[in-house]
Amino acid sequence: MKVLACITVAAGLLGAGAAHAQPIRIGELNSYKTFPAFLEPYRKGWQLALEQLNAAGGVNGRPLEVVSREDGGNPGEAVRVAEELIVRDRVSVLVGTFASHVGLAVSNLAARRKVPFLAAEPLTDKIVWEDGNRYTFRLRPSTYMQVAMLVPEAAKLARKRWAIVIPNYEYGQSAAASFRKLLSAAQPGVEFVTEQAPPLGKIDAGAVAQALADAHPDAIFSALFGTDLQKFVREGNLRGLFRDRSIVDLLGGEPEYLDTLKDETPDGWWVTGYPWDQVQTREHRDFLDAYRARWHDYPRLGSVVGYSAMYSVADALQAAGGTDPEKVVEAFKGLHVRTPFGVIEYRAIDHQSTMGAFVGQLARRDGNGVMVHWRYCDGALYQPPDDAVRAMRKE
Amino acid sequence: MTAGALLLLFLNGLAGASALFMVAAGLSLIFGVTRVVNFAHGSLFMLGTYAAIALAPRLGFWASLPVAALVVGGVGLAIEVLVLRRLYAAPELLQLLATFGVVLIVRDAALWAWGPADLLGPRAPGLDGALALAGGRVPTYDLFLIAVGPAMLAALWLVLHRTRWGVQVRAAAQDRDMAAVLGVDSRLLFTSVFVAGAVLAGFGGALQVPREPASLALDIPTVADAFVVVVVGGLGSIPGAFLAALLIAELKSFCVAFGLAGLELAVEFVAMAAVLIARPWGLLGRPAPAGPPADGGAPPMPAPGAALRAALAAIAIALVVLPAFSTGYPLVLLVDILAFALFAVSLHVLVGPGGLLSFGHAAYFGIGAYAAGALLLKAGAPMGLALIGGALAAAAAAAVFGALCVRLSGVYFAMLTLAFAQIAWSLVYQAGSITGGSNGLFGVWPAEFLSGRVAYYYFTLALVATAIAGAWIVHFSPAGYALRAARDAPRRAEAIGIPVRAQQWLAFVFAGLLAGLAGALYVFSKGSVSPEALAVPRSVDGLVMVLLGGLHTLTGPVWGAALFTWLQDAASRNFEYWRAALGAAILLLVLAFPRGLASLGRRGAPE
User: Fold this and answer.
1) Three-state DSSP class for B72?
2) What is the CATH number assigned to the segment(s) B333-598?
3) A-chain residues within 8 Å CB-CB of B216?
4) Cβ-nearest to B526 among A70, A75, A173
5) Quick one: closest CA in A to B523, which residue?
6) CA distance B48 to chain A (A)
7) Under 8 Å between Cβ of B138 and B131
8) Are A177 and A207 in contact (CB under 8 A)?
């Protein structure tokens, strides 16, 4: 059995001065066993970033050390693990979490214990808005932002009757609510003819496809991902659900989910995602080359998130000039970080990063799914007005 | 909704029923003969899916189906010979625990072999299209599945009624001792039945390949669905399983049709609860003959002797002085252990002296946690009131559910408790304005004077110690003795004037109260609670703790909870494949101490 011992990636390998300094400890926790498809690439991403950072001399002359822990995929265990990272391992910053409820629980603990926390993956709007707090920052674009990026494309389709299909939990519900609100504003007179909310990971795809077809929509908005999306695509293809209909899927272009569709990838769907093989910016090429050299694999979206999360934490520590939690929090506000997607900023107003996503259409090429006609949507442009954000944050 | 659309949804339900039937039939067969509740049956189904996808590129899709089924049969053989065969004499619940260990190992083995990503298998060559029907399109593979279900039912019926092996299986299911006396080689029979059940599960999994991607998360939901089907149909009844599979699959299909997303989360459990309340032995099952309790009557639980009292006192003192030496993480872990110890003790009231196997005890833990959280956050109650309210809410829920559950016994009782837990889970999941929906509640922190780690530790220690002592005192009170009498000899107990049902109901409420207190203490230590607190894995954890510690001991649940929580914590830190490590540890413990941890100190004592 491969003993990996809490992956304490110490930093012995680096340059002179830093090697003898006391390392800065970062606590990382995530649901590696519950969402492995997304989080294995994520882990490779932050490991690469950590190696690069330490090879370049660490932060403020001190090497970085990451204590990485499995959070068990549920809030109770995650909170215990986070407490352990704080109390026993004496970490200066917490980073990680995937599912929204785990992220929210850890965020609440971080505020209680006054430890800066970078929520890398959770999509929920609440973690920066209704339930936002001083110590929590979030890297990934939120559900709201990704919906807002897709709505202009959806409005351009000029379809009147929309059906909605979402996984039945908070992410799906808030995606549906945002989509209804934003599309109605962009395209007055649009109708929503049915909404299906199958249980997460347990979709009865045949029945859902049938029920959607029965409502005779012109277009479908889907927030499905993972196995639910795979089953939905297969049944929908078989039953002719997608013929002559426009489809918008919130996460369908992410390699984690797209790659599994292979030659069944539906044509022409509008999605957000990450066309890793086509992005030609310099930042991205550097990242891609380093990632492939290190792991002999191509990056997924999780890789970019993990990589950017580690750089965000390092930059915040650098800017804070130390590990004092209050100073780290202040440094995070308005912090600019270079990522493979370009420079992002952690908004002072709600602690959300401006990391964006690629919006494009799906197509098949050599039996695999790819994104075409894509463009990068800067997350800074897809935000509610500042007044609305302040009202939600109640700070 | 047009008639055509309804027909299409009906066909979709029929197709879904076939695979469900095959898993359930295997589970039913195994339970009927060996009396093992095979928790790993969903894992075998999952392996069938993975194996078929892995074999299809080499053998072709159609050949991969039987080969995958045989491969899974081989895995079943290994499980039976290496693990279960050594445990047939052990209490039934320990076999359940062992199969749970197998679940953990199989999941990590699949992760190791096939990686973390979900795998979408090929479509079935020749049946990859769809037929135009009733204004829509029906996948041809669905039509094939619709035919496979009844064909398998007929084949199973023929094998069970027209072959020598089938007669032996039915004989052993009726009375395995008598079958053995009449010369049936029970070792061989048990092994062959387990392998046959595994083959069925593997075949069911392989058949799902064109409809369902292989995923590491298939195991527990599949076995839960299979349990429901088996119980709704009536234990041991293969036609009953077929009928129930049809019923459940159609209900699910029509929940989608009518947009009942909230009901869809738990529709099979609602159906199971309804069936069990109306027909306590399932649709086609027969009342089980009244006999001695399943484990042949437990030895009386001894009152704690002087040595145990001294040991407990020493442990209590150690726990009290501990913060003088460490105020760090050990306290965090100990608060968890204390809360789970109380949870395990509360479950033990039912499972041990009560003889009532509950699969859904997490419901009361979760209701306690949620009620406390909601009282604090939504009603602005002070912490003390929230704690008491949490425990009382759990007791109230237990009073309602318990009244319906205690009318049943054995596995049917267990499944009704599971059904109520799942229904409670789906209500919590749906009632977003009170419970926070899938995100749960957070910001549930203790009052200022208890906000320090040490203070909250002492607070928890005091409450948990009092509650556990209370439970132990009750065990040796007239109520406790009456409960044990009701377990060991219900008719005699009735005859001497003990109201058996009422006694069991009281125990149920008491257990709910304690579990609710544990949940309320837990939520204040974490600051948050989410629907997982009520979910099946939490109930299973509780059973594992009780069984590890020893079912028929007084203090066992506490040791079991401590060991399990510590193991889970330590294993998740030190091994990448920590689930498998935990599973292996459970198997080793079960095989080494088939009477539980607490039997360590009683070795050599006369039985």
Assistant:
1) helix
2) 1.10.3470
3) 36
4) A75
5) A76
6) 17
7) yes
8) no
Please report residues of A whose CB lies closer than 8 A to that of B129: 238
pLDDT at A319 over 90: yes
Given an 8 Å threshold on Cβ–Cβ distance, is B442 in contact with A37? no
CA distance B392 to B413: 23
Q: Answer whether B513's CB lies under 8 Å from B398's CB.
A: yes
DSSP-H helix ranges across A21-169: 36-55, 75-87, 100-113, 143-156
Q: Is the pLDDT of residue B295 over 60?
A: no
Q: Is A5-142+280-345 a CATH 3.40.50.2300 domain?
A: yes
Positive/negative CA dihedral, B222, B228, B233, B235: positive
Q: Does A177 touch chain B (CB under 8 A)?
A: no
Question: What's the distance, CA A289 to chain centroid?
Answer: 22
Which two tokens mark B550? 């020893």
CB-based contact, A206 to chain B, within 8 Å: yes
Instruction: Report the topology of domain A144-278+357-393.
Output: Rossmann fold (3.40.50)
Query: Is A76 within 8 Å of B136 when comparing Cβ atoms?
Result: no
Distance from C-alpha of B469 to C-alpha of B482, rounded to nearest angstrom:
19
Flag whether residue A226 sits within 8 Å of chain B, measured between CB atoms.
yes
Pairwise pLDDT comparison (A163 vs B266), residue with the higher score = A163
Beta carbons of A108 and B261 less than 8 Å apart? no
Whether residues A206 and B142 touch (CB distance < 8 A) is answered with: yes
Q: What is the pLDDT of residues A247-282, one digit of tens each?
A: 999 999 999 999 888 889 999 999 999 999 999 999
Q: Strand, helix or coil at B499?
A: coil
Which residue among B5, B332, B581 sits closest to A214, beta carbon to beta carbon? B5
* Nearest neighbour of B533 by CB, restricted to A36, A76, A227: A76
Reference B19, options B51, B50, B35, B42; nearest CA is B42
**Are A5-142+280-345 and A144-278+357-393 equal in CATH topology?**
yes
Strand partners, A96: A29, A119
Q: What share of chain A is helix, strand, coil (3-state, %, to 5)?
A: 45, 20, 35
Q: CA A61, CA A23: separation in Å to the nearest integer?
A: 9
Q: What's the predicted TM-score (pTM) here?
A: 0.89
A142 touches chain B (CB under 8 A): no
Report yes or no: A118 at the B interface, CB cutoff 8 Å.
no
CA–CA min distance B439, chain A (Å) = 4
A130-161 pLDDT tens trace: 999 999 999 999 999 999 999 999 999 999 99
